[in-house]
Q: What sequence folds into this?
């Protein structure tokens, strides 16, 4: 599969040439592309240039690779336009926005069964990757404080996680000098489930990451089962190891359509939970959340106060200035949908995922790896045994000709010989549109099956999108 990503030079030469229909009297007919033009242009001209270039972007409705929400209703868009200038960090100026952020994190603490939701602490973030970084930092700092209080070394912290974690956890370990101990997934154990966890943890383990929605496959890791394994380890060794639940996707799914699943603060060992507001939280890109069980779960030395914005401003986060509009959109959705509305939206996406799973499982070329019964994400691979003249990368190329973006990638370490495709069902992929996809899938597989000689694999590379 050729590398289709455009380079910086792929949009033409170093100047932008204006179509005579767009040129206005007194304006230049060429504008510099890689430096600031010497002269002004009219807003209509600048708009037209940018508008035309981004017209080359893909159709978000047909992008089955991304988890990120790309649609909100007209009232949300109006609210967004009215509030995009609000700076969330400036709590002295935007006090009402600050109050609404507090309401949102209290709502999430309640949704995730914190013992005392109003006593829970948390913050919005720029995506759930920042939230994961903060969760990891709190685990490390709590471990350091406990070790120092006991007169023990803090030289070799480690964090235990599945090999299928999202890349942000590997970044966390790299950036903050924590050893990443990854438990490999396998055909027999497709998620981290607590089995043989004693081989990976020790007195230097700052925590275990449990995934409520594996990015590779969409499957839930059994948080309660992991906690039970850690209970047994503590009984044998005395090591009290907390859990951070990475609920980037599932924390906005499970409470509504799997309410009996125990994965959240109902488990005493769960110290913190993150979620992505711009995934199944249904908000435009740029919003994450993290909530800690209680005040004690977030060490005081990770909280800062600043006075140079006009008031005494408390802050937790890796970033500083950030938009408040996304927080307001999240609150709008809490009010607009309520529990029942969220349930119906999430159930609708899960129903579409299960429809796609049934249709793909019925095709003789494929075997399902996951069927969308956890978060609405399904994965499949070519059936083992037959000798194929084509592979899933070729199928991705064929589907992209029809506008569909379906990622193909190898599974993580110890399973890299298995290549899968994945569909993420988001709000907006209707049952009718899913039916169109299935028809296109059948057509492109039939074309590939008609080939009598193998297709070249030259230039193929994974396509993987979180």
A:
């Amino acid at each position: 599969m050729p590398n289709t990503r455009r380079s910086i030079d792929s949009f033409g030469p170093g100047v932008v040439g204006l179509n005579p229909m767009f040129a206005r009297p007194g304006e230049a007919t060429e504008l510099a592309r890689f430096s600031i033009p010497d002269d002004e242009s009219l807003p209509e001209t600048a708009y037209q240039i940018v508008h035309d270039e981004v017209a080359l972007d893909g159709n978000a409705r047909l992008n089955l690779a991304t988890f990120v929400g790309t649609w909100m209703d007209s009232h949300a868009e109006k609210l967004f336009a009215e509030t995009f200038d609000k700076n969330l960090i400036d709590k002295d100026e935007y006090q009402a926005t600050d109050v609404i952020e507090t309401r949102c994190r209290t709502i999430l603490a309640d949704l995730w069964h914190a013992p005392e939701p109003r006593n829970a602490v948390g913050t919005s973030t720029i995506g759930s990757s920042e939230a994961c970084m903060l969760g990891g930092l709190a685990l490390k700092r709590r471990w350091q404080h406990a070790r120092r209080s006991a007169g023990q070394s803090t030289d070799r912290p480690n964090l235990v996680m599945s090999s299928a974690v999202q890349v942000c956890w590997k970044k966390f370990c790299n950036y903050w000098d924590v050893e990443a101990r990854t438990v490999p997934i396998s055909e027999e154990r497709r998620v981290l489930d607590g089995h043989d966890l004693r081989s990976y943890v020790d007195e230097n383990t700052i925590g275990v990451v449990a995934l409520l929605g594996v990015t590779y496959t969409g499957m839930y890791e059994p948080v309660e089962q992991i906690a039970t394994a850690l209970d047994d380890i503590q009984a044998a060794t005395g090591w009290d190891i907390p859990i951070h639940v990475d609920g980037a996707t599932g924390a906005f799914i499970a409470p509504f359509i799997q309410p009996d699943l125990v994965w959240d603060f109902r488990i005493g060992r769960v110290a913190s939970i993150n979620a992505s507001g711009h995934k199944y939280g249904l908000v435009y890109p740029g919003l994450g959340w993290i909530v800690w069980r209680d005040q004690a779960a977030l060490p005081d030395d990770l909280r800062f106060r600043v006075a140079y914005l006009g008031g005494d401003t408390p802050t937790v986060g890796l970033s500083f200035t950030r938009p408040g509009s996304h927080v307001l959109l999240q609150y709008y959705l809490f009010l607009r949908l309520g529990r029942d509305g969220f349930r119906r939206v999430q159930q609708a996406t899960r129903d579409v995922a299960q429809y796609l799973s049934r249709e793909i499982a019925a095709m003789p070329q494929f075997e399902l790896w996951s069927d969308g019964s956890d978060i609405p994400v399904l994965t499949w691979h070519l059936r083992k045994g037959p000798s194929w003249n084509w592979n899933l990368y070729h199928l991705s190329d064929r589907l992209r000709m029809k506008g569909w973006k379906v990622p193909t990638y190898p599974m993580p370490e110890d399973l890299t010989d298995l290549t899968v495709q994945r569909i993420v069902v988001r709000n907006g992929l209707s049952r009718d549109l899913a039916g169109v996809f299935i028809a296109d899938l059948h057509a492109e597989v039939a074309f590939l099956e008609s080939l009598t000689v193998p297709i070249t694999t030259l230039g193929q590379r994974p396509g993987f999108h979180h």
Q: What stands out?
A: DSSP finds ten helices and 15 strands in the chain. The CA atoms of residues 365 and 386 lie 9 Å apart. The chain has two domains: 15-57, 69-466. Residues 15-57 form one domain.
